[in-house]
Specification:
- The protein is α/β, with parallel strands linked by helices.
- The chain has 2 domains: about 80 residues; about 200 residues, von Willebrand factor, type A domain (Rossmann fold).
- The protein is built from 11 helices and 11 strands.
- Strands 5-4-3-6-7-10 form a 6-stranded mixed sheet, with helices on both faces. A 3-stranded antiparallel sheet has the order 1-2-11.
- Helix 7 links the parallel strand 6 and strand 7.
- The longest helix is centred in the N-terminal third of the chain and has 25 residues.
- The radius of gyration is 36 Å and the shape is elongated.
Length: about 350
């Protein structure tokens, strides 16, 4: 908000912007009507001698005549406020990188393995959340899979809802297992009707395809046919890791040491066949770097918007109107009233 001096300068220079400019035409109209009515009401009287007329109430009489003018001025400032005066701040140019992206995330129980701190899934959700935050002008959706696949969030530009849904993802929502073909096919299905120039899937898993009724090769062919690029990420350290091996009746997991097995050959084939890339993340830092690399590679500017920013300054005019109405009310009911009575 600017100070009153700057606002006055803007008004006098004609650089003030009025969002409801048509309201300004009402101001000269009401003044013309007021003057026309006042002219008709003026009458003259002839006195042979003025000595009998009291002059003690001269000031109050003058104020009484001035009162309609004061009220009309207040009403004029009220109309100025209704006209929404705005002061130009700046031009803002936005280059939108419009890409439709589906994140396909493995949520099988093995994603709770402790070779990442605190576990693989927590790291995956954290870097995905940061990635979503960076892609302000893209539509992004979320698919989760384990032994089956489910669309957690369709393509949306409302990233706050998407991030909230991502935060709530946990193992156990779906049947356990690793259905890579299902995870990819479901993601591809969400992009098949997209009109975006660039459509990509980021698929992250820590295992080998061992479930689902859609084979990975079938999903791969579908992605190629629809021109969808797939980036694949294998998450997990090398060697062995503390991994869930069983589940207790209360839902908690029993951990044991197990070999880390990721079908890197399959993930590489999916990525290379669709024009994407395969990445291997053995640490949380590497996983963050991978998402940054993908963010840099996928920049397709499709739109440029120039936005003019204004600040709303109606408050000053509304304040002046209230002050004038307050003064008019004081004069009428407290100062002049005895004269009227």
């Amino acid at each position: 908000m600017m100070d009153a001096g700057n606002i006055l300068t803007q008004c006098l220079s004609g650089s003030m912007h009025w969002a409801n400019a048509w309201v300004l035409w009402l101001i000269p109209v009401i003044w013309i009507l007021y003057l026309a009515i006042k002219k008709r009401q003026v009458k003259s009287f002839r006195f042979s001698d003025l000595s009998g007329i009291k002059t003690t109430a001269t000031t109050k009489v003058s104020l009484l005549k001035f009162l309609p003018l004061l009220q009309l001025t207040g009403f004029s400032f009220l109309l100025l406020a209704l006209a929404r005066p705005q002061i130009f701040l700046k031009d803002e140019t936005i280059k939108a990188n419009g890409i439709d992206i589906i994140l396909s995330l493995d949520v099988s129980s093995s994603m709770l393995s402790k070779d990442f701190e605190p576990d693989r899934l927590s790291n995956a959700k954290k870097v995905a959340d940061n990635f979503i935050d960076q892609r302000k002008y893209d539509r992004i959706g979320l698919v989760i899979f384990s032994g089956e696949a489910f669309t957690q969030c369709p393509l949306t530009s409302d990233h706050e809802i998407l991030r909230e849904l991502l935060k709530n993802v946990e193992p156990g929502i779906l049947e356990d297992g690793t259905a890579i073909g299902m995870g990819l096919a479901t993601a591809v299905n969400r992009l098949k009707n997209s009109q975006a120039k660039s459509k990509i899937v980021i698929l992250m898993t820590d295992g080998v395809n061992n479930a689902g009724y859609i084979k990975p090769q079938t999903a791969l062919n579908l992605a190629k046919t629809l021109g969808i690029k797939v980036y694949t990420i294998g998450i997990g350290s090398t060697g062995q890791a503390l991994t869930p091996v069983a589940r207790r009746y209360d839902g908690t997991y029993v951990y044991g040491v197990a070999n880390v097995e990721i079908d890197e050959k399959l993930l590489s084939e999916i990525a290379e066949s669709t024009g994407g890339r395969y990445f291997r993340a053995t640490t949380g830092t590497e996983l963050s770097d991978i998402y940054r690399d993908i963010d840099r590679m996928e920049k397709t500017t499709i739109d440029v918007k120039t936005m003019k920013k204004y600040s709303e300054e109606y408050r000053y005019f509304l304040l002046i109107a209230c002050m004038i109405f307050g003064l008019a009310a004081f004069l009428k009911y407290f100062y002049i009233k005895p004269l009227i009575n």
